[in-house]
Amino acid sequence: QQQVKQSPQSLIVQKGGISSINCAYENTAFDYFPWYQQFPGKGPALLIAIRPDVSEKKEGRFTISFNKSAKQFSLHIMDSQPGDSATYFCAAECGRNRDDKIIFGKGTRLHILP
Amino acid sequence: EAGVAQSPRYKIIEKRQSVAFWCNPISGHATLYWYQQILGQGPKLLIQFQNNGVVDDSQLPKDRFSAERLKGVDSTLKIQPAKLEDSAVYLCASRQSGLRADTQYFGPGTRLTVL
Questions:
Q1: What is the predicted pLDDT for the residue at B97?
Q2: Considering CB atoms only, which of A32, A89, A99 is closest to B100?
Q3: Consecutive 10-residue averages of pLDDT for chain A (114 residues)
Q4: What is the C-alpha to C-alpha distance for residues A7 and B32, in angstroms, rounded to an integer?
Q5: Which residues of A fall within a CB distance of 8 Å from B4?
Q6: Is A104–B56 a contact, with Cβ atoms under 8 angstroms apart?
C-alpha cells in the first residue's frame, strides 16, 4: 500500500504564530489532497483541499501549498489560535479503478499555547 | 442539516465475540464509507458504497468483517469474530456523490474495545 507520510507527529506553537504541517506522497495518480481537523471524540472534518493543478490555495487563515514535482503538500495555519488545537490529517485521493483510492497520513497533534 | 449518525458510540466485547455498528448517512448522500482509525493513526478506508453497491472493499478483512447497505441508505458493519487488534474507532462518512469535489462528512465514530 502506498503511504502518505505526515510530519511532524506533534507541534506546539505560540498563539499568533504560524503552524505548518507537511505531507509527502508517492503515487502520482493521486489528484485530490484534503486536510482534515479532528477534535477528541469527534470525527474528522474537512478543512481545506487542493488539486495538483494549483500551487497554493488559501481559505481564511488556512493555506495549502502544493509542490507537484516534489510530491509534497503542506498546511499552514496563520495567526494560530488556542481553538485550533486539534489533530490534523492530510489525505490523498485518486479516482475509481486505481489503487490506493483514499489514503490518510498518521496525523499531527497541534497545541497552541495561549 | 443533520450530520452522519452512528451507533453505538462505545462498545466493549471479549475477543471472538461478534459486534455490529450502524451508520445513517446524511440524507441524499449516495456514497458511504467505513473507516478504521487505530489510536494514533489516520483513518484507514475499509469499504466504500455507491448507493447500495460496493465500489471498493480491497482493505476489508473479509474473513471477519462484513458490511451492507441494503436500501442504499443506512449501513451496518459487522465483525465476527473480533480480535484484539480490532480495537479502534470505526468511522462512517458520506458524500453527496462519488465526486471528490464533494465534501466527505464524518460521523462521530464508534469506539470498539476488544478484551
A1: 83
A2: A32
A3: 88 98 93 95 95 94 96 98 98 70 94 96
A4: 29
A5: 43
A6: no
